[in-house]
Amino acid sequence: MKPAPFEYYAPTSVAETVALLEQHGPEAxxxxxxxxxxxxxxxxxxxxxxxxxxxxxAGLDYVREEDGALAIGAMTSQRTIERSELxxxxxxxxxxxxxxxxxxQIRNRGTVGGSIAHADPxxxxxxxxxxxxxxxxxxxPGGERVIxxxxxxxxxxxxxxxxxxxxTEVRMPLLPGGAGWSIVEIARxxxxxxxxxxxxxxxxxxGSIKDPRVVLFGVGATPIRVxxxxxxxxxxxxxxxxxxxxxxxxxxxxxxxxxDIHATAEFRRHLAGxxxxxxxxxxxxxxx
Amino acid sequence: xxxxxFPKSIDDLPVTNPKWVGRPVKRVxxxxxxxxxxxxxxxxxxxxxxxxxxxxxxxxxxxxxxIDMSRAAAMPGVVTTLTGEDAERWTRKSYTTPxxxxxxxxxxxxxxxxxxxxxxxxxxxxxxxxxxxxxxDVEYELLDPIVDAFAAAQPDSPKVFDEHENNIMYxxxxxxxxxxxxxxxxxxxxxxxxxxxxxxANPLETFGVISEWDLVEDTLTCRGSFQTPSYMAMGRAxxxxxxxxxxxxxxxxxxxxxxxxxxxxxxxxxxMLSRKAGGRPVKWIxxxxxxxxxxxxxxxDRHYEVSIAVKNxxxxxxxxxxxxxxxxxTAEGFGATGAVKPMASFTGCYxxxxxxxxxxxxxxxxxxxxxxxxxxxxxxNFVLEQMMDIAARDLGIDPAEIRRRNFIPPDQFPYxxxxxxxYDSGEYxxxxxxxxxxxxxxxxxxxxxxxxxxxxxxxxxxxxxxEPGVFDWNAYTVIGTRGxxxxxxxxxxxDTMGKITARVGFALEGQGQYxxxxxxxxxxxxxxxxxxxxxxxxxxSAPPNFGPGGSRLGVAITGxxxxxxxxxxxxxxxxxAKLFEVQPEDVELLDGELRxxxxxxxxxxxxxxxxxMLNRSDMLPPDVDPSPEATFAWTAPGRVExxxxxxxxxxxxAANACHLVMVEVDPDTGMVEIxxxxxxxxxxxxxxxxxxxxxIQGALAQxxxxxxxxxxxxxxxxxxxxxxxxxxLLPTIHEVPMPEKASLVTPSPFTPxxxxxxxxxxxxxxxxxxxxxxxxxxxxxxVRATEVPASPNRVWKLIQDAQQx
Amino acid sequence: xxxxxxIRLTVNGVSYEGSAxxxxxxxxxxxHELGLVGTHVGCEHGVCGACTILMDGKAVRSCIMLAxxxxxxxxxxxxxxAKDAELHPIQQAFMEExxxxxGFCTPGFMMSIHELLQTTTDPxxxxxxxxxGGAICRCTGYESILKSVRNAAAKLRAST
Lengths: 288, 805, 160
Description:
The structure holds three protein chains of three kinds. Chain A is α+β, with helices and mostly antiparallel strands. Helix content of chain A is 37%, strand content 26%. In chain A, strand 12 (196-205) and strand 13 form a beta hairpin. In chain A, helix 10 packs antiparallel against helix 11 and helix 11 packs antiparallel against helix 12 (265-286). In chain B, helix 15 links the parallel strand 20 (500-504) and strand 21 (532-536). In chain B, helix 11 packs across helix 12 (399-406), helix 15 packs parallel to helix 16 and helix 18 crosses helix 19. The mean pLDDT of chain B is 97. By secondary structure, chain C is of the alpha+beta class. Chain C contains five helices and five strands; from the N terminus they run E-E-H-E-E-E-H-H-H-H. In chain C, helix 2 packs antiparallel against helix 5 (143-159) and helix 3 crosses helix 4. The longest helix of chain C has 17 residues, at 143-159.
């Protein structure tokens, strides 16, 4: 199928972008790499009357370390992240997550900001953002502001961004030295959206687990942080039995998961626990 | 045939050292394909061409109360529109078999499946045509959808077709031999139910067509990605009540078909749009969503109940198969023949003396079923092979061993199976032994034991199957097809420079048959491959032909080429005989020269003889016309009508394959990983071994898809849920194993050069083998996977249920 | 009425100027406006990979890009591989290893492989699978494509 007609603008600055979005209101749609939006346009499932392409906005393509975080320009391609030495050395979790995003041809066009703003609950980046307490820097009609990851993902394909907001930067805090991390997922085929996945980070201090984070993706309407499991883990000594127990707890406490042709809610509930357990084991194994 | 003696083997060709046939020569098709120059249908632009878009029904079952095309017709860029009224006026209802279960190509009274064409527009671009669809106003009165095959088969079910008594398209029980007696006397009987969900072809190129209706001459010309252009042309002539020589079909190179290219509706719709647009050419390129929901995409929606009778020693004495096949809304797509084809290899590789087939085909509000590679036996083989394993487990016999005990022995060929088909030749035990040896079977079983001791779920499947080759219409007489024999023709000519041209009726599709034709002619006349060219002839220029289908074309075109070459040689011989002043029977063709048999130095090249024919009428014998060309159409010998139980010699060849696969099932996720894969394949003489290898590997990938990934899903309201490649999962390079392969060669005694049909290949075997392996892995849990595909959700649920017991 | 957009881009070293509605996809622009029909359309939703081309050296799916997004870009398509009658090593390898059957997906595969071999001269099978995992071939079962990549890599290494 072919897209329905729309007007197209290619602003070159953030301010111009915000102004265009303000002018056209909710009928306008922001186009970043287009790897999610253009298929929807082609199927006429998304029908904006105005498309604002931020591909020519200067200065949104960078990765740098600032104040204990990686500051990533929203239009930085996933491929850039995958190949960035800085990311590999300072935040290998992000690199590992990137390798699970689609395929190289998708990552060449797909952007960090596009993925996070699209907020597909089965996508990897939103889960990583939530696990790391990332901060989203947003430009809007009222100026710049920062939205915490915990407040950003509202529901299925919906974020705290207002119609005239532009996500400009994602700040991903670095993990503390020696912390372990993991991203695991299960998909029908390599590169498909996950049926369920988990991002796990933790530290071990004097033999006990400190600051555990367990975030699920592909399970609910947003990435889900499982605090019950984190509380169960904190202060405990890492062990296979503990991780199995934490996995079971994850399966028990989460809200009714999504159900689709690839996995029933019951199966997703189970997989969520398995992914959490496997993620915990892998993260613990990476603790230095 | 016609007194022709076909060479039985490559050594019998008129060349001392064959250089091409039997070797993996490079394909003549490739240069245009790898440079992007092949003329796929969407590459063709004609002057004044319009673009068609089709409005598909969003409802599975609804009465059409009104259609208002006025807003769409008024849109700038729209040239004409079409509805069911036009179809009713200009066409006949379309169906294949069984007879009478058809509709017009655009819905008239009611819609019967989501995706059924309701209206169409022709506009100056596809974009505008799609915009116009949004301005068509259709008022529907919703009816209850019929989606469950068992419910649909009940007498009180709502009906898909009001004019039929019920939804049963076909019902018949075939009994071959003393089945009841065998079950009564058997030491052991086993019964199991199975479910095979819809899968389908999905060639990377969807269907496409450009139709032109010349209003003055009342002729129709269609260019398109037709698997069988001549056959499609005949169908259109019937549909439009046109004289058949006024319908011209030009096959374009196309991006695969696998039986499921579809295209009848799109061709008819564009033809009528062209007629309404004053004869301007109208193009329609089916998009992927249309292909998946409304095209030739779906096959084999089957519910099985299967029983076997087995003696204590593992000898199987009878097989009963009860099949309910959901053909969807109409019988337009040849889906029904797929349920009948298993009769050509009903009892597999086994000497099972008695069998019964209780067959019910039912209509529902799903997409009409189409053919798909293998055309029906792959699910049948899946159920038969599961039953062999079930018996083996219960009797404590190794799965490889129970197969060995039941194989048809080599000295029994040609062998007639209970359902009537004749197998030409085979060495089933040798293929099994080869696979066992390659895999180190005993060692695999040891590995499996160790893994099981550690709680891992590892399984081995070993399966032998038949691929019926060289399809014939008589295989389907019982369901209403007409005719016996399928001629495949070629015209071969040699020009004054000695260059050879072959004209065939089929286009490039992927199998490499133009290469096979080239190899055959190059060896026959002892020239280089470059000296031969194969061209596609349209249906009005080509000799009788069908094209690829039913693992038939390789054998059939070989017969045609050898027949034409022989006929042409007879002419050349006469000219040479006159030249040398001997009798024609004293002259032979050898190594590209016509020689006097008793005087080897009296010889003349083929090229020079052709030169004489074309340029020296004074030297021509009186009974030879100056035409160095010949046409020959081949059809399988010895085909007749079926008897009263449907028994018939239908498919001419029986290729055999033995697959061994080792899998691991992850009990926590239900994921199946293929660890090892081995294949021994015997399709007789391999005319081009690289072609055959490509068929095996490609069909293996499709088998992996069918076993683990692919499934067309409908919800309880008959809405399709697999409308994109995000949800219909084709295997990628990550999912397909790279097996170790061996070839055996048991030539067919019935075919030219001893080749057997080999095009459908491993899809016959792979799903059965993978499912056997999964069930072997699950054995310690005492559960059995009986549903295909074995998705992670299904496998996990089985394991869950086992653990909760 | 939506206004047309002017689009200037370079394909296979040749500059083109054209105009298109904003909604026109890049693959439709290449095929139907510029006549470069070697790039094929298999799904129009970014899954099958048949439409893969190189944009500024990177493999991208031209069915899920708007032509307007490629304004100013340097593109390469299958038509840019062979130099007159001389086939590119990737094309030669596909012929030798039977990397194609129907050939419809082949141009897309070759462009992904082109990107891979620019950066990875001696790829492992894992790297090859990674580079090609987003492309579907329904004919070959991938074995011969894997071999084609190995063969092409060896040819390219030998030529430099």
